[in-house]
């Protein structure tokens, strides 16, 4: 097995607020690693043989890499806006490819069937036309002008609304969702999915949010987002093949799958193949 280009990416391996001197053991691409806080307050991440890995703290998480990333961790400028609540949702372990987890987050069409009466409902199942592009300068996948009717777009929402969405893929195992903010029209709520590849078919998913919501208790915000993702987990763990197919002929896309198609094309372009299936079996 070769990790290839994926080795030089940044990956989340824990919540900054949870790391202490006692340390935590975890996996990254099949390799055991340990993270802990030094006496001076520095976060240290090491492999089992004592090799220190690069570390960056961002978006509430500790990020590291088995290689040497040639670019900084992607920014989320909206999270620095005054008045936003930064929500650490925690972690959910999922028996699926890390790339499958990201692709599922990008899928709009499943809302009425998996998140019934919350993020979608019948008969509002049609995905309207939207735009997708690979932005060459940023080297990111973006989907814009996405609209979908949702009975409860957020924990703070009082009723059904047509929600505006934008999706951004700034890294192979990360996605950022911008959606209509019920509490503050004209602004975007930010919901992210940071995925830690434990192996090619097992991952830890770290959702994180930057919201305008002064009313909902933090515990309710966390539970709402955990409920949404746990509904996705059963779907993800039953997908066949487990790894994300990158050959266009292996799965037949529909108009609603434009973001997925662009994401797979972008992964293939950069040789991001950890957790991918390249040929039909």
From TrEMBL:
It comes from the Bacteria. Transmembrane segments: none annotated. GO terms for molecular function: dioxygenase activity. The keyword Magnesium does not apply. InterPro entries: Cholesterol_7-desaturase (IPR050584), VanA_C_cat (IPR044043). Keywords: Dioxygenase, Oxidoreductase. Pfam families: VanA_C. The keyword 4Fe-4S does not apply. Residues 94-269 form the Vanillate O-demethylase oxygenase-like C-terminal catalytic domain. PANTHER family: 3-KETOSTEROID-9-ALPHA-MONOOXYGENASE, OXYGENASE COMPONENT, IRON-SULFUR DOMAIN CONTAINING PROTEIN. This is Aromatic ring-hydroxylating dioxygenase subunit alpha. The lineage of its organism: Bacteria, Pseudomonadati, Pseudomonadota, Alphaproteobacteria, Hyphomicrobiales.
